[in-house]
UniProtKB/TrEMBL annotation:
Domain AMP-dependent synthetase/ligase, residue spans: 105-250
Residue ranges constituting the AMP-binding enzyme C-terminal domain according to the UniProt record: 320-392
Cross-referenced Gene3D superfamilies: 3.30.300.30, ACP-like, N-terminal domain of ligase-like
Highest rank taxon of the organism: Bacteria
Pfam families, A to Z: AMP-binding (PF00501), AMP-binding_C (PF13193)
PANTHER family: LONG-CHAIN-FATTY-ACID--COA LIGASE, NONRIBOSOMAL PEPTIDE SYNTHASE PES1 (EUROFUNG)-RELATED
This protein's name: AMP-binding protein
Organism listed in the record: Ramlibacter pallidus
Regions that span the bilayer: none
Disordered: annotated span: 381-400
C-alpha cells in the first residue's frame, strides 16, 4: 500500500490542518493561531494555547482520522506536546497501519460524524481523476488537507499526476487575487465555490493553461461561466460527499454529471464497486435526474441542507437555536438571495414586550451556540413572520 505520508511535509500539513480545525471547532469563533505559528518545536499547550480538554479532543480527532488505535500508538499523543512530536507519532502509527482513514462531516447538525474509508478505495478514485487532469505541473490548494476533498486532490492525486511534494502549494494564506500574478500554465487550482467567487470578483484575467477543481458545494452555473470568461481553461466540478468521496464529475456548466467508473445508481442509492470486486451501497443525499444511460443532473437535497462556504448547514437547526432564546416567540431562517449574499438570514418575532435590546442579544446568542457558517448574517425583527397573500411562508429583504 502506498506510503502517502512520505515525505514528512505531506503528513505535517495534514496533521496541522486537522489540529487547527479541531481547535477552531472547540473555540466556536475564537481566533486560532495561524499556520505560521505552528512551528515544529511549538508546544500545543504553552505556545499554541491548547488547554487540557482541547488537547484531549485534538488527540481523539487525530487518532480517529488515522486509525491510530489499530497500531496502539495513540496513547503517546497526550504524553508529548510539540507539533513535531504529534507528526512523528502519526507517522509511526501509519507505518504500522495505514489501510483505513476517517474523515469527519461538517457537524452542522450537531457532533461531526466520522466516515471511514479504505485507502484502496481512495486510491481507486484518484487513479481515475488523474486521467481527467493530464499535463498538470503544480497543485495550488485553497482547501484543508484533512477533509476528504482536500486529501484526495492535494495529498493523493499529486502522486498520480507524477508530481512531488514540492509541487503542491497552499493558497490559504494568500488572497485569491494572487492567482493573477502567481498562477502558471499547467497549474491545477483546488478550491470551493466561495473561494472561486472571490477569484471571479478580484481577478480580471487568469493566466492561460490554468485548470480549476471545485467541490464541497454546488457551483452556480453563472460562476462557472464567469471563471471561463476570465481565462480559466476548465473548471472540473466534483459531486460527492464525505460519506462517499467523489461520485461524479463534469467539466462545464449545465452539463450532466458523469459517474466515476466504479459508481452506479440504483434507485435512491449509490453503489460502488470496490477494488476487490465487492459492492458497497450508500443512500443519496440528493434527488438524481437521469440523463441518458449513465449521466445525471442533481435535484433537490432530501435533508433540506443548504451550502454556506462549502459547508452543509440546516436552516431548521438554526431556527431551533433561535427559538431557545428566552425572548424569542417565533423565527424563520433561510439562505440569502444571490443579490443579498451567500450566508443565512433570519426573521425573528420577539415575545410581547421583549424587543428592546433583543438584536445584540441574539447576535451574542448565535455566536455562542452556532458554528460560523450557521450564524445568520442578517437578523430582522417584526410582529409576525412574513407570509404570502395565500398564507404561505414568504421571503424578506435581508437589509431592510
Amino acid at each position: 500500500m502506498r506510503a502517502w505520508w512520505l515525505p514528512r511535509g505531506v503528513l505535517r500539513r495534514f496533521v496541522v490542518d486537522l489540529l487547527a480545525a479541531e481547535m477552531a471547532r472547540q473555540r466556536r469563533g475564537t481566533p486560532v493561531p495561524p499556520p505560521s505559528q505552528w512551528h515544529d518545536d511549538a508546544r500545543l499547550d504553552a505556545d499554541l494555547g491548547a488547554d487540557s480538554l482541547e488537547l484531549m479532543d485534538m488527540a481523539v480527532a487525530l487518532a480517529e482520522a488515522l486509525h491510530l488505535h489499530e497500531s496502539g500508538i495513540e496513547d503517546y499523543l497526550l504524553a508529548r506536546r510539540t507539533v513535531d512530536d504529534w507528526v512523528a507519532i502519526a507517522g509511526e502509527g501509519l507505518a504500522r497501519f495505514s489501510e483505513r482513514l476517517s474523515f469527519r462531516t461538517s457537524g452542522s447538525t450537531g457532533a461531526p460524524k466520522a466516515c471511514p474509508h479504505a485507502l484502496a478505495t481512495l486510491l481507486q478514485e484518484t487513479a481515475h481523476l488523474a486521467t481527467l487532469l493530464p499535463g498538470r505541473r503544480r497543485v495550488l490548494c485553497a482547501v484543508p488537507s484533512h477533509h476528504i476533498y482536500g486529501f484526495l486532490f492535494t495529498v493523493l492525486l499529486p502522486h498520480d499526476l507524477g508530481l512531488c511534494a514540492e509541487d503542491v502549494f497552499d493558497l490559504r494564506a494568500s488572497s485569491p487575487a494572487w492567482l493573477a500574478r502567481g498562477a502558471q500554465d499547467g497549474d491545477l487550482v483546488v478550491a470551493h465555490p466561495g473561494w472561486w467567487r472571490a477569484v471571479a470578483q478580484t481577478v480580471p484575467r487568469l493566466p492561460p493553461g490554468v485548470v480549476g477543481v471545485t467541490s464541497t458545494a454546488p457551483c452556480p452555473d453563472d460562476l462557472a461561466d464567469l471563471l471561463v470568461a476570465h481565462g480559466l481553461q476548465r473548471l472540473v466540478q466534483v459531486y460527492g460527499s464525505t460519506e462517499t468521496g467523489g461520485l461524479a464529475t463534469r467539466s462545464a456548466a449545465r452539463r450532466p454529471y458523469v459517474p466515476l467508473p466504479h459508481w452506479r445508481f440504483d434507485g435512491g442509492e449509490a453503489v460502488r464497486t470496490l477494488p476487490d470486486g465487492s459492492e458497497a451501497r450508500h443512500p443519496l443525499q440528493d434527488a438524481i435526474v437521469p440523463v441518458g444511460d449513465r449521466a445525471f443532473l442533481v435535484g433537490a437535497r432530501h435533508d433540506a441542507a443548504v451550502q454556506v462556504g462549502g459547508i452543509n448547514v440546516f436552516p431548521s437547526r438554526v431556527r431551533e437555536v433561535l427559538l431557545r432564546h428566552p425572548r424569542v416567540q417565533d423565527a424563520a431562517v433561510r439562505l440569502m438571495r444571490p443579490d443579498e449574499g451567500t450566508r443565512l438570514k433570519a426573521f425573528v418575532v420577539p415575545k410581547p414586550g421583549a424587543d428592546a435590546g433583543l438584536l445584540p442579544s441574539l447576535h451574542e446568542w448565535v455566536a455562542r451556540e452556532l458554528a460560523a457558517p450557521e450564524r445568520p448574517k442578517a437578523i430582522r425583527m417584526g410582529p409576525a413572520l412574513p407570509l404570502t397573500p395565500a398564507g404561505k411562508p414568504a421571503d424578506w429583504d435581508a437589509d431592510a
